[in-house]
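To whoever picks this up:

The nightly regression suite flagged ORF9 protein as changed. Nothing in the input moved, so I suspect the structure step. Input below, exactly as stored in the fixture:
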Amino acid sequence: MGALIEIDPRYLTNIENKGQHPSIQVLYDLVSLLHVSVDEFFLPANNLVKSTRRLQIEK
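Regenerated output under the current build:
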């Protein structure tokens, strides 16, 4: 994916695994490539359906 938006693979790895903040341009390129909103990029858990086990735990 890094090659598609012309960034170093280590930079992308640091964003994914170490919490490095991408530049505005890289953020724009990533959300455009992935067809997601900025909210979905930073808060993907908001869109996940809770598992049956998780619902049982929350009762």
